[in-house]
Amino acid sequence: MERFFKPKRVRSGESSNEPNISEPVQNQSCVELNLNDIVSDPGLRKSVEKFDISLRDHVRREYLTRGPCQPIGHMYPKTSFGQQHRSFQDIWYQKFVWLEYSISKDAAFCFWCFLFKTQNKGGRYAEDAFTKTGFNNWKKAMERFNEHIGAVNSCHNDARIQFESFQDQRHSVSNVLRSCGREIDIAYRTRLTAALDVTRFLLKQGLAFRGNDESTSSSNRGNFLELFDWYSQRNTEIFEVVNQNAPANNQLTSPMIQKDLAHACASEITSVIINDIGDNYFSLIVDESRDSSVKEQMGVVLRYVNKEGRVIERFLAIVHVSDTTSLCLKDAIDSLFAQHGLSLSKLRGQGYDGASNMRGEFNGLKALILQENPYAMYIHCFAHQLQLVIVAVAKGNIIISEFFVYVSMIVNLTGVSCKRRDQLRQIEHDKIVALLDSGDIISGKGKNQETSLARPGDTRWGSHYLTLLRLSSMWASVIGILGNIQDDASTSDNRGMARGLIDRMNDYEFVFALHLMKYLLGITNDLSLVLQQRDQNIVQAMSLIDTMKSQLQDFREEG
């Protein structure tokens, strides 16, 4: 009868009022681990006993993969013991491999006892000082550590035995598969390899696994299943293993398997990034934005120098934040660092945009981090500053400000609907075909591509320059589509606006401003593109800015 019942997944930490017996599809519960509950800092962890009993081995494997929290190189705070000042020492990690340090509590913990807290034969549990509250009496640290290890039958040694047994490969999944036969092992690995290849492709392309609908109908099966079928059909042997001979409960195509594969790829990539950073210094780049579901998301990028001396930028995570205040962003960064075992004392640079919550002198995110680490120098992105300066200067001139207002009106009116955009593309296409027939332009790879008017944005690098380039190259087509709007628009407002814009485009002042700003923005756009290169440094950036200023000054005097 159990095959007629289907479990309902519940996130770890959520309560379930359902009885612990087999029930129909709506009622039975199967807890799912939330990886956000796996925290590297031992002072912020949730004990293993608080997880559902079915998840505890999974939790232990996750912590075993990350290893004990040992922030080597951290600036440990000193504590007064009479007239002496003592602190935690990195050298203790070498003698006590089980030792952990909590940055949040400035205390030491036992990694083995945390994972396998048991009773000894006398009925005594492992002490809370090394599993819950933490130990911070640095004056007698070595003596207390040895006392914690205790005798052969101590709680610590019992936890050590269980820890070593848990690592025993004889009980691993791979060994069980080998015991069932080499053919089963090969078939399973073939299916798993195919699923991983499909997962890697979807992750690299940024495609959804199940599309816009989680329906299992054949018309909308999702990208994962469609690509999985296509991949398996490329090879007859793979097709037989994946589709025909695979057990019904081992297809590796369920939504939970897809999610596990994606999490596994993300965990491996993150682990490689953290190991590549090691104990080196690094910089932090943060920006927040609202996604399509109207949730504030904070993107975190780390910049560091690897062992080969190359500057590396790596995307670390996207973190959901309840609001964009500096305190909320700081808490999110602290939690992310604690989760991955990163120390704020190793931070040497921070780069954000110019918003007040980021660069505020007293309460901004920059100031909050500088209070804890005065060496984390803040640098506002030069390319972003250049764009903001250009926009501010342009708006300070009445003629240029009015010019960009009319440009925005032209872009909005010609691209307000798909019908008008298609008409603009068709007019431009007919013009290019006519020029090709007359021999005025030549064809070739990458030439005469289909284009449309780009919408300018104050914070998008080079967007104004791109808009002016498109408007200049599609001048006749834009006037043509405005003429169509003047003749065929359903409202008198649109007809009047189209006529006014045509008159404005035929005005000398508008044309002069177009060519002037196209030349000036061409100079600044070249600088903006260079400033966005990864191998750029502060000395080269200042030199490039001086060169651009000289070009602008020469144009002002002699242009």
TrEMBL record:
Residues of the TTF-type domain: 84-179
Leader sequence segment: none
GO MF: protein dimerization activity
SUPFAM superfamilies, per database record: Ribonuclease H-like (SSF53098)
Region (Disordered): 1-24
Coiled-coil intervals, chain numbering: none
Biased composition (Basic residues): 1-10
InterPro entries recorded: AtLOH3-like, DUF4371, RNaseH-like_sf, Znf_TTF
Stored Pfam families: DUF4371
Record field: compositional bias (Polar residues): 13-24
Protein name: TTF-type domain-containing protein
